[in-house]
Design brief:
The complex is a heterodimer. By secondary structure, chain A is an alpha+beta fold. Chain A has 2 domains: about 1-25 and about 35-55, no CATH class; about 120-425, Beta Barrel (Porin), CATH 2.40.160.10. Helix content of chain A is about 15%, strand content about 45%. Chain B folds into 2 domains: about 1-185, 3-Layer(aba) Sandwich (Rossmann fold), CATH 3.40.50.1980; about 195-275, 3-Layer(aba) Sandwich (Rossmann fold), CATH 3.40.50.1980. Residues about 10-20 of chain B have low confidence and may be disordered. The chains are: A alpha+beta, B alpha/beta.
Amino acid sequence: MAIGHRLLCIPILITLTAFPAFAQQAPPADPKIDQLEKKLDELLRQAAEIRQQLDSMKGAQPETVPDLTKIDVPAAATAATSTETPAKETPPPALTDVQTVENVSNPGASKVFNPDISVIGNFFGKAGQRNSIEYGEERPAMQLEEAEVAFEAFVDPYAKAKFFLAAGPNGLEVEEGYANFVALPKDFTAKVGKMKATFGKANTWHTHVRPWVDQPLVIHNFFGDEQLADNGISVSRDIANPFNVFIEATGEVFSGSAGGIFERVSDNDLFYNGHLKLFRELNENQNVELGTSYARGTLGNAGSSSYGGIDVTYRWKPLQQGLYRGFIGRFEAMVNDNPLATNNLKGFYASGDYQLGQRWFAGARIDAADRLTDGATAKDRGLSATLTFWPSEFSQLRGQLRRTKYGSLDKPVNELLFQLQFAIGAHGAHTF
Amino acid sequence: MKRIFIIGALASLLIGANAQAAEKLKVVTSIQDFASLTKEVGGDRVDVMSIAKGYQDPHFVEPKPSYLLLLRNADLLEVVGLELEIGWLPPLLDQSRNNRIRPGQPGYLDLSNGVTILDKPSNVNRSMGDVHPLGNPHYWLDPVNAVRIAIQIQQKLSQLRPADAPYFAQRLNDFKIRINEANKRWLATMAPFRGAKVVTYHNSWPNFAKYFGLDVVGYVEPKPGVPPSPSHTFDLIQMMKANKVKAILMEPYFDAKTPQSIAERTDSTLVVMYPSVGGAKSGTDDYISLFDLNLSNLVKALRK
């Protein structure tokens, strides 16, 4: 009603405003005229408001309420799935009328076959006491420790290729490079090339996936910074079962030359690795993963060496608050039957990482591992605390306080490690 | 003898039930909205499971191996596309050991192909935050697009099960009639509020806002995926006061602390809007009830 009344005023106002001279000629001292002028101002203000409302309504209101029963999808979307008979083709023109066809080529079209490319920088810094055992004597206080360059694309309908090149102060090397056959019969998948062995959890991680700046002692002492990796073939298959458990068995064979972990003497000295993984959801917020691994191969002329390991991962991530809260507990233990040691070498780590907020994480880790040094066995122990900040999904800043008691040193080594990791390009998501 | 007969009858029942279940198409969807629309069209001829829950941020789903159990046997995978699932679906597909549902195969349906996509950036880089370079992927929050999604699902189901095509077509038609009636109600409810200025937490509601004539004048996030900062929050408050913004729309999986504080300082209302079917514990069981609930909550705030 109020709007209708206001609308009625508009023509009157237009009429009044069309004769400004009339208003100007009136004696200014007359109180009635003053009142009229005030009313006129008020009416003009109201008219402006109404015009504004009308304009906004005109702009926002759809012309008609759409009839959703008549909606269709664009032809392009349905072309691939249409089962209708194609329309009858028009008869071809007489060949005397044929003209050339202008096809505009797109010189950039082949670029769609370029692989996903990414580079992840790992800037590392260290303060505190010198750690000659892990870092040697000449380690700079800070350096770009690694630039991981990754390429990933489908090779053909059967395989994906993944290359991870690690460039660092010591040069460029192929960290991993393999074809991943994702479409084999009988539910098999396979990887062929150079790769990290599927032994436990920490051995398979790239630097930017680790929840710590460093490697746990057990990985460092048993496998070294390069981890257990070699050229070989890996075959996996999941095992169906009625218990709603994801079970995956992996068998691998490698060339037998893995940086001091296995060293072949003859061409037939391959090393073998097997891994069994079980994953079960406890509920939608919690899950647990169990794994067991076994690797065996030749260690030069000393004889055969074997490694056994178990890993347990517990995760809690409430689905609705998943952006802000989460916890991951990890435990991994290994034993090495090494021909160079009198007793089996053992090691483990246990860690917990809690998400404090959308971008903040805190963690702690306890470490223990034997280390073979000049034929003797040193028992190393360590404690660490980490604090991680993610400015975005593509960068990560981390600090780690670490106290390590090396069996071959008298005093513990206290260090502050810090790390900035930053990624550009399209880096494929990693396996859970 | 009687026991043998009973056992035989039970066995034949079980076998019959299994045979019927085996005939159903196994559909896995990335979000629950697609699962709901697939149920609308597929009825009892499909078994549908969604990977992301409605109360979960679909950008950040953990690629848990348990999802592989779903994907391994799926006949059809329906995805949002536009790189919404890029952080978690590719590794699942690589490990699924199911070639039928890979991109390019008949069992893969990217539903972004047949709908209206907004916010397609002409130039994008990561300094702009987590912007989707192919356009805004929250397109299902538009009833017209919902119908387009349902049509694509009907066409795909008919392609995979030609014998059931008339059944799917009939159910699609029934759904169209029901959503069309609901749509008249929704538009009438929102008609008085066309042009109303609102703020949203994340840029998840462009299709919804455009359809119902809402004017999104700002976001709680300074940039997509970046948590609210004090300076941005201060600027947002000033802007909201100047524009007399009445409502802040937020998904249930975001932290309400900052938007609630903004609402209190700007005399506006924080409205929890459910972006997907299953987003609330009750009242969001299907696509139509999702919109009923969201619009009811929104109108209450805009009336204040």
